[in-house]
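Posted in: Structural Biology > Protein-Ligand Complexes

Title: Requesting predicted complex, zinc ion in pocket

I'd be grateful if someone could produce the 3D structure tokens for the following input. Sequence and ligand are given below.
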Amino acid sequence: MALLDRLRRIVSDANVLTEDIDGFVTDWRKRAKGNALCVVRPGNSTEVSAVVKACAAAGVSIVPQGGNTGLVVGSIPDESGTQVLMSLQRMNAVRAIDGDNLTITVEAGCVLQNLQAAAAQAGFLFPLSLGSEGSCTIGGNLSTNAGGTQVVRYGNTRELCLGLEVVTAEGEVMNGLVGLRKDNTGYDLRDVFIGAEGTLGIITAATMKLFPLPAATLTAWAAVPSMDEAVRFLGLAHHHLGPGLTGFEVMNQFSLSLVDKHYPQLRVPLWKETPWCVLLENADSESEAHARSRFEALMEAAMEAGCVTDAVVAESLAQARNLWHIRESITLAQAEEGLNIKHDISIPISAIPEFVRITDAELAAHIPGARFVDFGHLGDGNLHYNVQSPEEQDYREFQRLYEDKINDIVYESVRRFGGSISAEHGVGEMKVDRLPDFKDPVALEMMRRIKRAFDPHNTLNPGRVVRV
Ligand code: FAD
Ligand code: 2HG
Ligand code: ZN
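-- Reply #1 --
Done. Output follows.
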């Protein structure tokens, strides 16, 4: 029987799509467009398993997809039209919440915002938080080991996961949905699948950690005179708030000018008078008054030390939400301005000011008129160091002329400062050919061996992360 017919038998006709699939085969940034034999939408892990077996038998490769919000071209098929795109979106149930064990078990296609809401409804916090949370899925978050804005306190998605259910490249179902915080019974397979970007197995469900809801959360927006002072401010924030520091984001003036230009209704505070702004959050387990007194002590110390020149502390939940909304709108504002050249890099926090100084100067010398959209998760040493075309230049022409050169300059600088070329977005197709220049050769070879062992016929997301 032909593959399409077998797939229709497994998931029903309605869940094998061959027409109107542009949304599935185009990446979020509209940077790349692929084609697919079909989009298949299984409804449970048994169906996922049967689909994988059918594709493997037919020698057809599979690209798993969650919310398709990935930024490294990993979730869409190639242009051949021979691959099967497997969307996990129908598998979106919350299977169980265990309040005593502080865990929640969800299917892979559960949208992050729905997971957060289910946790909150049960009186808990699920802290993973990204600008794309309205459409990205927990399966995608796990597969990219997503970061976001709460990592400084709670860690990446990896740190939030206790167990996984995975369909292997041979179609077996590995049930690892344990809620154990301690389990040293051999190799940690869970951690191999996390961050594997769909190249080693298909995640179908996960058991994730829950946390108590904080008694109070305060948010502030501060004007900061330089990146050096932003780093000093971060040190003060750690000192004054301890584990209460849940977010520390930095944004340069140009990134905020884009938000102001494309979303003036958001009324970005302070940005006109300062090269950098910091958005920080303090979550307190005691009370609002306790949170405020610690926050005020921090802001006073920061002003006195000259790290902060002006600040706004949100007086209501609505104000706090708006400040976060401004921060989360930078990616959208960049997209409105036109494609830019993204770098999702991490550097030891202490080296970030020098990195920015030197790399800005090198880029300015080689790429006349380039505009820098620098922002990111300073608390994690993770910058989105993006380069936008000059205002008068067509961005596609800019990309064609300068992308390689810009990447060379930025990545070489990242190497000099001991950093990583992918902090949180992953490798996908975009960085797969750059990886050998940056990864330890022994580590890269071990990755290839893992890929061959887990997926001997290269069925799962071939050509992403590592070429075999
Ligand atoms: P997809 O884009 O569908 O897939 C991503 C990768 O995972 C692909 O390789 C895909 O094959 C694989 N995959 C998906 N589901 C599965 C599965 N069930 N099993 C196996 N493999 C699978 N990322 C951050 O880290 N931090 C941020 O702050 C952040 N902010 C963002 C803001 C915006 C506005 C946007 C558009 C993106 C942002 N991202 C951020 C990137 C993106 O949202 C994350 O990478 C997210 O984790 C992807 O989830 P997804 O469900 O959309 O996955
Ligand atoms: C963020 O932190 C995302 O907002 C997206 O990781 C970064 O647009 C980007 O480059
Ligand atoms: Zn980010």
